[in-house]
Each structure stands twice: as C-alpha cells, then as structure tokens.
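Q: I have 247 residues here and want to know how they pack in 3D. Can you give me a structure?
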Amino acid sequence: MSYHLPKLGDDPQAPFPDAETALRRPDGLLAFGGDLSPPRLLNAYANGIFPWFSAGQPILWWSPDPRTLFRTDSVRLSSRFRRDLRHASRMSSWVIRADTAFEAVIRACASMPRRGQDGTWITDEMLAAYAELHRLGHAHSIEVFDGVRLVGGLYGVAVGRMFFGESMYSGESGGSKLALAGLARRLAAWGWPLIDAQVGSSHLFSLGAESWPRSDFLARVHELVSIPASPGGWTARFGALPVSDLA
C-alpha cells in the first residue's frame, strides 16, 4: 500500500502533505517514512497528524476523518463512579500529578493489553522519541497515585494551547478515567479548550468525547497551536489534585 502514499524526505522541517488528502481506507493514512525527531513530531501534531505503526512497519502518519476529541469542560464521570469517589475507601487516598513518572506511564501504556490488538504500537522507537519530547518539555504525563503506587495515567503532547492525547492506562479500575478527568480539570482552568483523542471508541464516547469532521478539527487546531506557550514541565503548575475533588 505504501506506493500509493507520499514518502516523507530527510528534512524534519519539511511540510507534511495536506491532511485533507489522507486516504479513506484505511481512514486517515496520509504518508510514510521520515523520522520521529522532535521537529518532525511537533510539526505533525501542529497540523493534526500523528504517527501510528507497528514493529516492522515504516513510520506511518495519520489524520483520520472524523476526529475524536474532548472539550475540557465536558469530560463526564458517571454519577455512580463519582459516588464511588466519595465513598470507596480504596480511592480515598488517590492523588493526580503531572510529569513525575513519564517513563513509567508510557511503559505501562505500552504493556497494557488492548482488546482486538496483538502486541503494542508503542515500540522502543516510539518510547525513545516521546521520552525526548518529554525532556524538551513538550510531552507530558498525567499520573494517578495511591501513595507511591501508580494506578493509572495518560500521556500526550502539548503545542500552543492544544493537548494531543496519545494513550492511557488503568492499573486499577478507574485509573485512566481519573487521569483524563484531572487533565481536563486543569486544562479548562488554564484556558485550553480541547483534548485530541484521535480515534473514537465506546469507552471514550461514554466519557463525553465528540466526533468532529476533520476540517472543523483542523481549523480549531491551527488556531490553538498558534497561541504562544513556553514548553516545560507541568509538575508544579499542575500540583496535586485529590481524586475526591472530581466527585
């Protein structure tokens, strides 16, 4: 299939093909090749494009239509789940933090079994690339802790005032939901309106995700990524958010 696609060259600063030229089958496949250097990755996200490929494949670049996203003021936790937050002793001490365990979160995402998937797309190459983005202050992890034990989390990339979610996991039931809800709470307070969730699922839609036409998504992304924002760690800015505050 790769011969139908544009091949990216060696220059990581070179523009990507227009996302609207992506294939319909498989949905959103746009280009292949290139590398996972920080300039290339940041250029991709700023244009609504992300890498997704398995071991043994070339790097594949995607921009699906429609696009799944969350409004940061509309992430939903069910009334039953919020009741559990108020009353379940197992979650009473849980706290949400940011950028204190990035490598642990991304490795947990890589090792978590996924329904309908054999293995992981978070290869060693991807791990190294996002660890470098994190070192540079562009990639962030949101972590849910029970004391010193990591029980859930997610990671993604920030460009301007747009957060592009990559993957999340639960070490215990509810861990990923709380990481998402905590991230949304903080981003909404900072004036960041959207979280990209890439491709929809029943689980994401149950939490309040929306499906947008790619053209609408790209227009909003181009606006948000153009707002200046300095890269850097989020640990102090995010603080410690008790999960009981989300009840």
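Q: Anything worth noting?
A: Helices lie at 38-46, 79-87, 102-111, 124-135, 175-190, 202-206, 214-225, 235-238. Residues 114-119 have pLDDT under 50 and may be disordered.
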